[in-house]
Fold these 4 entries.
Entry 1:
Amino acid sequence: MFPGTPTPPPPDRGRGCVGGAGGITLLAALWVTGAVPAFSETAHVAVAANFTAVAEQLAPLFEAATDHKLVLSFGATGQLFAQISQAAPFDVLLAADTARPERAVADGLAVEGSVLVYAEGRLALYAPGHDAEATLSSGNFSRIAIADPDAAPYGRAAVETLAALGLYDAIALRLVTGANIAQTLQFVESGNAELGFVAASQVLDKDGFWLVPEIYHSPIAQGAVLLNEGADNPAALAFLEFLQSKEAVAVIEAAGYSVP
């Protein structure tokens, strides 16, 4: 033993991009004092693929708690960021890392001061019906799936784990790469790969997974950011506030994440 294609972006709604310093703190103050109009709005949210199921649980809770609506689009963090860089009209980015949200601010695509860590993920090795750790250590498999390490932080964590275990070079030719973590799980469940590195949140209710010790890879801190497109959208701000509520945190933690 050891020590996919993202959802297309929403159509342009014609709302101008408004940036500015102060980020969530300033906008939250405006919301509380009533300076931001309290009318119903729709926020378009780009969501990292690993957070799909959780976001789908949170959306109706948010809509029930407010008069606002959410439109969710899913994909690998890198691919979603590329769309945002090309002016896709998203209001909020829920990434699987903090690098892209921070880069969005640095590139002038997001509101300064609005980056927050909404969840910390765990990596799991999944081999349906088998001991995943033992299967990996034995090398008795023909294909192992990972998400694209250039686009998906969970894929990067998988590569780091294999390297830390001294296995990457030996199995590099057996890697099957998914466009995102959702497609990676599909590869395993369809039998196209006997095992694969996925988000723990995807397999908590399944048998045959190994929760990878965090010492083997960089932390998977997942950051959210208010994009310029959503800077004047009350629904976008309200959703970021909702992510930090007790109700939302309970859902996130129940799905296998931790919340700072």
Entry 2:
Amino acid sequence: MTEQARILVIDDEESIRKSLAAVLEEKGYLVDTAENGKEAIEKSKTRPYNLALVDIRLPDMDGVQLLTAIKETIPKTIKIIITGYPSLENAIEAVNKGADAYIIKPFDMNKLIDMIKEHLKKQQEARKYSEKKVAEFIETRARELEKQP
């Protein structure tokens, strides 16, 4: 990865925020944390994040509601729901509201890291593809304009 990915960890449990931040920073990611939805929304307005780890139960809002708010401020962000209260209903709702993945606490940190790497790789490939398509369009359009009298 040519640039460091930015990750926002949103969880009301300080121990989870700190341990995730420490592990992710050790893996080379730039990490920011938020303890509630409001703080996460404010941070997402001031800086872009490649990925957000979102606890489904936050003190001020439901994590699924936060997915919608984050999608509005940083639409290309990968959103992974983290929950200690798994249910088929909230998994379906999370995916329908834009979650890219869903992981259950307590989770295997290696599996989470692998999931993050895979999603960031796909994001980077999509960005390269988009950049290539834009460059092709510009080149084609420039040639068309050169041919005009």
Entry 3:
Amino acid sequence: MDQSQASKDKYGQLVKEVSPNSPILTNCIKAFIIGGLISVLGQIVMNIITSQGVEKDIAGTYTTVILILAGVVLTGFGVYDKLGKFAGAGSIVPVTGFANAVAAPTIEFKKEGLVLGLGAKMFIVAGPVILYGLLSSVLVGVIYYFIK
């Protein structure tokens, strides 16, 4: 065994000793519960809106807007970050997580000004999602056009 392999083995052992074990089952349960509760909240909001006589499609749009607004407001007050640390992926998957991904960099870089801070950094996380979502939808639309 050469010197570099011995160093790598020693480093690997040190990492195992220092790194805490991740409680995977507990994290999955937390993510499932919090993500489910966010979804249940969305369903409750949608049920309330549809009970007022609003069509289901329009109620879905209103529900999405309300959940995005809630995600942004909770991010602004620092609550959503704490929820994310507790729930992990359970807070990222719903639309509120997307709102958090747009709002958090905006809040972080607001001191750099409206253009270079807020404008440039707003989509630092969500930008690739929007870009590739848009491109894939165009691609599917073109394929659908030629198949039909």
Entry 4:
Amino acid sequence: MRSRLLLLLFAISMLSCTQTHIKEHKEWGKYFDAYGLKNGCFILRDHTHDAIHFYNKERCIQRFLPASTFKIFNSLVALETAIAPDDELVIKWDGVRRRPEWDKDMDMREAFKVSCVPYYQEIARRIGQARMMHYLDTVKYGNMKMGGSIDNFWLNDSLQISADEQVGFLKKLYFNELPFSERSQRIVRSIMLQEDSTGYRLYYKTGTGRVGDSLTCWIVGFTEKIEHVKEPKESMNKSDVRNYPYFFAENFTVPASDTTKDWYKVRIDILHSILKDYGAM
């Protein structure tokens, strides 16, 4: 019943704009197959052409724990409530050794880059359950459920979100359409920037969450394809820079015991392959 309802919601969202073009790309499966992945999906929204492209529709509408992709939302709430005055808020290391890249004092920008869980758990505790719940409800983020403690609900499978919903959330973030200030959204977009090249800028957040004996691996974000369009002769040699945004979400599930591959690198390799295949990079 729940699966049919999600499928219906997906269909309604796809048909909400009569001009939207929807296309399935079964051939994108080869990028997952190359790593032996049988449970994966990818959804891409091409804003310029008002088109949605996907691989494995059923999984695109299935909800999973967001894991560290929730740091995007957590950062927005922290900035909006002034828990973090800006992205330079430093939280001191608690002295517990976890990972070398986490075991130090750091600000939000660095914590986001190294995906420091303790930093964002402390951010969530400072925000508090009432304010966090308010924004989950206001944004309509996934299933909007906070089970367990304030500093663990995005990791313990209480909060869940689909790849389709991630793309909708990111599109609103890009265009300042979320119920947060322009400043908060602008700062979060800036800390999401991971690759800045001549022809494109790539913004994303990864996430890995364990449920039972399985790991759910995410990468969500958007890319801007940059094109330099020459202006008329009277403007001399000036060129106009145009950005074409594409929004994406990818996830796959692997056995938690499978350490044969670097799954962090795998998800980025698949992302690059599909974006290049489509022409978004």
